[in-house]
Structures are given as C-alpha cells and as structure tokens.
C-alpha cells in the first residue's frame, strides 16, 4: 500500500504573513496579488512605494491639512483590504489617488462648515512674501511660496483642483485622469484650462516677485 | 509673459497648451516633494501596518464576508434560529432550560392510575353512595318543583259575600254618605 501523498499546504487567505518573495523587483500587479493573499511584507512595500505620492496629493487637494496623514493611512488600509479589485492594466498610483480623492471629498463634506474663509490665509501669505525686507532665507522663502500655491489651490473648484493635482503634480496622462474621474477627456481639459486661469489670477500679485 | 491659457480649447483632440513660465513655477512647487514625506516614510509605513494589525479582526471578517457571498441567507437563517430558540423558551416557560432533559424530571411517586375514588383526595368530601337517602332526595325534588303554598283559611273562617252584607247591618259604616257618588247635573232630577 502506497503512502498517501502529503496534502498541499494552502495558505489562509485571511492571514497576514511575511512574504517569501523578493519584493524589490515586483511590479504593482504582483504586489497587489500578494497583498490580496494576505502578504504583510508586500503590504508594507506597497505603502512604502507610494506613500509620498499619496500624501503629497492629499496635501494639495485636502482642505484640512491636519487630516492628510490620517486620510493617507486610510487610503492604504482600503487599498490593502480591497487589493483584489486592483486592475493591473492601470498604474497603481492612479488607483491609490482615486481612493485618496474619494476619502478627501468625503472628509471635506464633513468638515466644510468648519473650513476657514477662503482667501484670508492666501492674502496674509502674499502680503508677507511681498515684503522685500521680510528677512527670510531661501528655504523659508520657498516654503512660504509653496504654502501660497497650496492655498491658491484651495480656492479652485474641486474638479479643477483634482485635475491640476493629478496632471501637473502627479503627472498622470489625460486619458487616465478621464478614466479615474469618469469624465470625457475634453471635460478634463476644460477643468485644467479654467484651473490654470484661476491660478494665474490668484498668484499674479505675489508670486512673480518671489519667483523673479 | 506668454498667456497661453487664454487660447485653450475644450476639444478632446486639441492638445493641452504647454505651461508658460509663470505656470511652470507653481507647477514645480506642486511637484516638489516635501522633505518630511521622505524622512518619515518608515514611520508612516509602521503607522499603517499598526492600524492594519489593530483592524485585523475587521479585515478578516470583511474577507470572510466577501468569501461567503450574499449575507441575506445567513441573516435569514440566524433569524429563524433565534425565533426557534425564543419559541422553545416560551413553550417550556423556563428560560433557564436550554433544552429537553428528561433525566432531570422527577418521576411520579405512585404507579396507581389516577381517577379511582380511593385515590381521589376529593372523594371524601362527596357523599358516599351508601349514605344517600333516596326518599329524602325525592322529597327535596318534589318540594323544589311544587308551587309555593298559600296559607288557606278553613272554610268556616272564610267570609263569603252574604256574611259581608250582614256584617254591614250589624256594624253600619259611619258617615256612609261620603261613599254616595255625586250626580253630575242634580237639576235634571
């Protein structure tokens, strides 16, 4: 009588265990499939790989600066929970930014009443940076200018702000933005055009002096 | 400064105009990655993984739920089970009992069949057959069905009409005129 062959060891799908696969060269599709099978190291690698993009995106599009890291964490938690829904035909970053955008919109809807009056912060920053004897070094000057740009972004409409962030900050192509936002490419271009025009109006008084 | 954005078209086929100098300035600032995003990346990753561990129960339940598919049959089965359990408690009348346990029930102390006069504790309170007086029963029955008796005077004590008239002669009624009816028209005679 022949001995019974050993049963194949089936890894529990719900368990979060350490990966035996080298993750450095793994593409996003493989990473997502490992995460979907409960691979903890793959989940950590996914977060490490895309955290700067997601956090930077949220800092631009989210009204509440203090909530950006919480929203970024929630973005990755959702991505890990629903990793099997990731479509490897598209870059992982666009999928993550779509999740982050939805979370940001939901958070903005909840905290809209507590939002400070638009433009107040921007005017104060512009007046500070426009003073020639502000006594700021180059790093401080750049930080203030960056803050001024971020505040100007907050004055855009939501579709304009998200389109500009996805295209000019994250570098996503127009086709993918249209896919992620579920709108025609022409509409994406329209939002970009109007957003650029509005940014010019908002930043013209102060930024030229700073950037010159 | 070149104001290229004023000539933009919304047409999907028209390429987006390149950024002018002013726009490149603020777009470059948007692209610039903050130093803290790079410096505390490990702390951020640890924070996400810690939250993942804390929410692992929810994570597992969500996965199990998705594997199980539709939750409605499960909810219906749970509702039926709860209703059956509640019905059992109501039927038994004792919520401490979790099910039928015949071994715990005390067996009957006597093997005699109930229903005999000797075993019936109420039998002594009832008259025994040998104590029943048939004559008394008949008498009681007849009294219950006869009409109530009226006191009848003996015939010699019963006044008849003639005796009443004679008694009037012996004892004339005082002021009898008041009993004579008055005529309505006395002049007609």
Question: Can you tell me about this structure?
Answer:
The complex is a heterodimer of chains A (212) and B (189). With 212 residues, chain A is an all-alpha fold. Helices cover 66% and strands 0% of the residues of chain A. Chain A contains nine helices and no strands. In chain A, α2 (40-61) packs across α3 (68-81) and α8 crosses α9. Chain A is globular. The model of chain A is unreliable at 7-16 and 116-133 (pLDDT under 50). Chain B is mainly α and 189 residues long. Helix content of chain B is 46%, strand content 0%. Chain B is built from seven helices and no strands. Chain B has helices at residues 21-31, 35-39, 41-54, 56-68, 72-92, 134-145, 161-170. Chain B is elongated, with a radius of gyration of 58 Å. The chains are: A mainly alpha (212), B mainly alpha (189). Chains A and B meet through α2, α3, α6, α7 and α9 of A and α1, α3 and α4 of B.
Q: How would you sum up the global shape of chain A?
A: globular
Classify the helix fraction of chain A into a percent range: 55-70%
- Counting DSSP E segments of at least 2 residues, the number of strands of chain B comes to 0
Q: What is the CA–CA distance across the termini of chain B? A: 152 Å
Oligomer description: heterodimer
Number of helices of chain A: 9
Give the ordered list of helices and strands of chain A: HHHHHHHHH
% residues in beta strands of chain B: under 5%
Low-confidence segments of chain B, given as residue ranges, are 1-10
Residue-averaged pLDDT of chain A, rounded? 78
């Amino acid at each position: 009588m022949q001995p019974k062959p050993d049963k194949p060891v089936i890894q529990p799908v719900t368990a979060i265990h350490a990966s035996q696969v080298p993750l450095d060269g793994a593409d996003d599709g493989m990473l997502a499939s490992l995460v979907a099978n409960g691979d903890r190291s793959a989940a950590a690698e996914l977060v490490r790989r895309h955290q700067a993009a997601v956090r930077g995106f949220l800092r631009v599009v989210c009204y509440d600066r203090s909530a950006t890291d919480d929203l970024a964490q929630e973005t990755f938690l959702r991505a890990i929970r629903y990793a099997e829904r990731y479509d490897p035909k598209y870059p992982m970053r666009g999928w993550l930014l779509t999740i982050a955008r939805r979370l940001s919109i939901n958070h903005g809807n909840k905290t809209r009443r507590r939002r400070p009056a638009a433009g107040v912060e921007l005017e104060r920053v512009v007046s500070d940076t426009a003073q020639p004897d502000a006594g700021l070094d180059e790093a401080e000057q750049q930080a203030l200018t960056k803050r001024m740009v971020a505040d100007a972004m907050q004055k855009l409409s939501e579709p304009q702000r998200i389109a500009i962030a996805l295209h000019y900050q994250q570098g996503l192509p127009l086709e993918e933005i249209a896919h992620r936002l579920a709108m025609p490419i022409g509409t994406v271009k329209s939002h970009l055009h109007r957003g650029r025009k509005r940014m010019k109006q908002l930043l013209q008084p102060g930024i030229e002096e700073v950037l010159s | 400064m070149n104001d290229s954005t004023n000539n933009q078209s919304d047409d999907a086929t028209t390429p987006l105009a390149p950024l002018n100098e002013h726009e490149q300035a603020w777009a470059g600032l948007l692209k610039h990655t903050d130093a803290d995003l790079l410096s505390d990346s490990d702390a951020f990753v640890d924070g996400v993984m810690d939250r993942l561990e804390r929410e692992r129960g929810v994570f597992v339940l969500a996965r199990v739920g998705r594997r199980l598919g539709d939750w409605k049959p499960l909810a219906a089965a749970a509702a039926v089970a709860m209703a059956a359990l509640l019905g059992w408690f109501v039927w038994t009348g004792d919520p401490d009992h979790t099910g039928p346990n015949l071994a715990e029930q005390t067996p009957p102390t006597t093997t005699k069949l109930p229903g005999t006069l000797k075993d019936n504790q109420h039998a002594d309170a009832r008259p025994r057959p040998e104590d029943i007086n048939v004559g008394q029963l008949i008498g009681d029955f007849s009294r219950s069905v006869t009409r109530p008796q009226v006191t009848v005077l003996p015939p010699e004590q019963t006044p008849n009409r003639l005796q009443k008239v004679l008694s009037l002669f012996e004892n004339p009624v005082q002021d009898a005129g008041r009993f004579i009816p008055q005529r309505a028209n006395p002049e007609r005679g």
